[in-house]
Amino acid sequence: MAKKHIIVDPITRIEGHLRIEAVIDENNTIVDAYASSTLFRGIETILQGRDPRDAGLLAMRICGVCTGTHYQRSIEAVEDAFDVTIPKNARIVRNLIQGALYLHDHLVHFYHLHALDFVDIVSALSANPKKTSDEAVKWANVSGTNPFIEGAGQFKEIQDRVAKFVKQGRLGIFGNGYWGNKHYKLTPEQNLIGVAHYLKALDIQRDMAKMQAIFGGKNPHPQSIVVGGVTCVQDIKNPARIALFKTLLKESRKFIKQAYLPDIYMAGIMYADEATDSSATFTAHKKGKGVGGTGGGLLNFLSYGDFRLDDTGFYKSALLFPSGVVLNGDLSKVYPFNPEKVEEDVTHSWYEAKGPQHPYEGTTIPKYTGLEKKADGMAYLKTDEKYSWIKSPIYDDKRMEVGPLARMVIGVAAGHELITKYVTNFLKRGNLPTTVLFSTIGRTAARAIETELMADEMMKWVDELAMNVASGDDSTWTDFDFDKVSKKTKGVGLAEAPRGALGHWVKVEDGKISNYQAVVPSTWNAAPRDYKGRLGAYEASLIGTKVADPEQPLEIIRTIHSFDPCIACAVHVVDTKGKELGVYKIDTQCSI
Amino acid sequence: MGKKVALIGSGNAFFKDEGVGLYGAKYIKENYTFTPEIEIVDGGTLGFKLMPLLQEFDEVIIINTASDESKKIGDISIKTTDEFLDGTLIKKTANEVEIAEMLQICSLSEAMAETTVISIVPSDIIAVEVALSSETKEVWNEYITTVISKIESLGIKVNKMDKEFSLDEILDIFANPSIEHSRGF
């Protein structure tokens, strides 16, 4: 059987340096896949020996995509270690900052990093503006609303603008697309709707960023969160600030409901066939229920839970997103999440360790064994050995997917009223089966469902904050005796970043950090195989995918993007002929 | 009303030379005053979250690294909006990719600042360290002067403070952020 290798390798390093090697058979179906991150990160070494109260400010610089989330988790790990419960105002403010981050992340991800995997921009140029307007009404109606952009005139204007960009050669990022690929399934009119919303979303994301800054302090880096609470007392006591937050949130919600969701219905319905294509089910599930279509993958889902809704302290309070585990896409059961069962394995990662380790005991000892140069001059991953800088997280000896799809699936399986309502509404309105969720488009839809839910809940949280302050409670910080609480302790910050479960584990001795491990969402999803040879989430999701043109791996990029990898836009194909991957120098010395 | 101007330092403060843009912006903030005032922003490793700044200011200067293997270490390049929109910005580190792609996406927005990217070819962006390599240190003064000249070219009056806040002191702030936190960027 003639098998071909497709290599998708971006040009970046650090968290974005993701390489995919996929093997396709003679029918252009992916039969094997390997995900590799090709640069070592020094997260853990940076924090060792530091004052735990500094951890948040250091951790926020680790990654530019999840900055605010790392900042909060790191601080919460220390609060957990010190047994500090933050006041109500601080909890709500943190939820609002994190909620605004979700809205911003999800919107930018869908429109600016992912939409062009579905929307063919060149095709939009041949759309009929009048028909486009009718089409926009149709999809907004499916969503139970009116379109955000209406009328042939507006669509014509946008079409002219895009044509001008093309003419000027200012298409920039659009230049990398595989326009005309037959796996683009939208009509010219639908493509024009997508492009119009892409451009409008550039303005909307600006409001969402402002929302983060209202309580977050310095823009663009939030600085108002400290161990014990928040520092933005003046902002929460100022009704004008709260009113501004609400105004921006209302505008954002309008776009989410009248553009984002209708677009997801449009893509969901147009791509429903491949989403439910059981011949593309990940091999491991074929013998079972046959659930999962193109891009479905592992179907094991994990959520740490997030957004505390009361003030009973860490890991006891009610949550907006429940924690839990769902296995094999079986929505009839949800297993409780136990943090003791998280481990990291390095069998196929460029590190040394004696076996899977719990993050508290985790080590980071690099052992780079390189790539294999084959006759064609290309450097390939040594897939039987070590082939990635990402460790392989395991939960209860199983591989897991994390992210918005995991949160929605676990919510439904747990019978969580709010999540079930939003997910059921979505499926009913689109006349889509539940199994559509177990796919690339399902992962993308789950993110949109979550965005709507989040925006609606945030409206309630702003009111709750305003009422609490009005009742005379202006407490924002819980005092603690640092010398007393930092002698010998450990803690964990477990929550959900927009792209999935994020944990920071800290051990403190004599006032200093003695060990620090962060297991980030992209580690769960982008990890290589584990000690039993079981695939990571990206790897599993690609198996069974049919590629229309091996020279244009649109389908691989679409599925990988659906997970919202750290630098989604950076995953692209390069002509790797004769190109050898660089061998990176490893330096674990930390002199800060 | 004069133009609204922002200077954004961009990069990863923990990977030695990759922090040069951040250190540079901070150095300028601590050692100079401007009339009219300009906004100096710690862009850190942020990429797409910087888009609002590009939409809100008239002129934006981004200072960062350009891992350009075809050039000499320490080479300083200046690129204007028209020059980088054709895709010639170097995209090797995660941050360089994000900045370049963010600028391209942002250029489709109705309002985008006139943007200049001033980059330096780094020597060491692998070591986990808050420091500069000796090669980058050698061109440090030239780098700062280049950025200051650009700011002056926008019609802004620049005044150097009497007492110098040294590069070492700047590095110390990045290595010990609680100093930073109590003072603000």
List the topology elements.
The complex is a heterodimer of chains A (592) and B (185).
Chain A: E1 4-8, E2 18-24, E3 30-37, H1 43-47, H2 55-59, H3 67-82, H4 88-114, H5 121-124, H6 129-142, H7 152-168, H8 188-216, E4 225-226, E5 229-230, H9 233-237, H10 239-270, H11 272-275, H12 283-286, E6 301-303, E7 306-308, E8 319-321, E9 324-326, E10 342-345, E11 351-352, E12 365-366, E13 372-373, E14 379-380, E15 392-395, H13 404-413, H14 417-430, H15 440-470, H16 482-485, E16 488-497, E17 500-509, E18 512-519, H17 521-526, H18 537-542, H19 554-562
Antiparallel strand pairs in A: 1-2, 2-3, 4-5, 6-9, 7-8, 10-15, 11-12, 13-14, 16-17, 17-18
Helix pairs in contact in A: 4-8, 4-15, 6-7, 6-8, 6-10, 7-8, 8-10, 10-15, 13-14, 13-15, 14-15, 15-19
Chain B: E1 5-9, H1 20-31, E2 32-35, E3 39-42, H2 51-56, E4 59-65, E5 76-80, H3 81-88, H4 94-106, E6 114-120, H5 134-138, H6 140-153, E7 157-160, H7 167-175, H8 177-183
Parallel strand pairs in B: 1-3, 1-4, 4-6
Antiparallel strand pairs in B: 2-7, 5-6
Key features?
heterodimer, A: 592 residues, alpha+beta, Cytochrome-c3 Hydrogenase, chain B, three-stranded antiparallel sheet, 18 strands, globular, disordered C terminus, B: 185 residues, alpha/beta, Rossmann fold, five-stranded mixed sheet, two-stranded antiparallel ribbon, 8 helices, 40% helix
